[in-house]
Amino acid sequence: MISGIQHYEFCKRQWALIHVEQQWEENVRTVEGQHIHKRADQPFLREKRKNKLVVRGMPIQSKSLKVTGICDVVEFIQEDKGVEIFGEKGKYIPVPVEYKRVKPKSQESNLLQLTAQAICLEEMLVCEVKIGFLFYNEVKQRIEVPITEKLQDKFKKVVSEMHEYYSKRYTPKVKIGNHCRSCSLQNICLPTLMNKRSVKSYIEGMINE
Q: What is the pTM of this model?
């Protein structure tokens, strides 16, 4: 799932708990995030605005990278160099728009998620997607993001790692930090127990002493 990139970049263990072990808990942030996306995710709803076709809740996939997801919004901009869209006259260039709850931050996960959407659209529609947008609801700000080769390479590397963990059904241990406090899975993960010694290591340590 493309949405898993957010979890993976925030914490690999959180991602594995959700996507490998199928565990989940709600907190204020996740509920607010669902509320924001609910307004954008209206499957197959089309809206025509002059030279722009707006499609909400569009399912996407990349067979080559084995990822699937849903675009909050795809804006198809009428352009002679674009591609034909079923049921519409003319040609269009697809531009993904991802909605975020909070204000802009330096986290690369947002950029990678948008890049993933662009790659899927390119593969599905056989075209180039050079830009996308991130819309931050908290400040009502929309930021243009160039889909660079560097971002594409980083996304492919991350997806390869995710597939490897998933195929092994492995949930990694990670270094705990301040980010654990805002994690919706801290009651399941129990991060403070991860770095404690096991009974076996404790006994071996006592014997060695």
A: 0.77
